[in-house]
Amino acid sequence: MARLLQASCLLSLLLAGFLPQSRGQDKSKMDCHGGVSGTIYEYGALTIDGEEYIPFKQYIGKYVLFVNVASY
To answer: Is the pLDDT of residue 59 over 60?
Structure first.
């Protein structure tokens, strides 16, 4: 089962490589929530161990894949 999951993740990443590059930040903007403003680059996140804050502005101009690892 784990190999199937790994294969599906790798296939998704491979297919994402065929997407055309965005011609600027405006194409990547999306309204997520009424109370949230700005871009993703104005935010950041704690590392999984909670010891370091990573500002997303350091990734401007780079491809970023966000993965929700929250447990239910």
So the answer is: yes
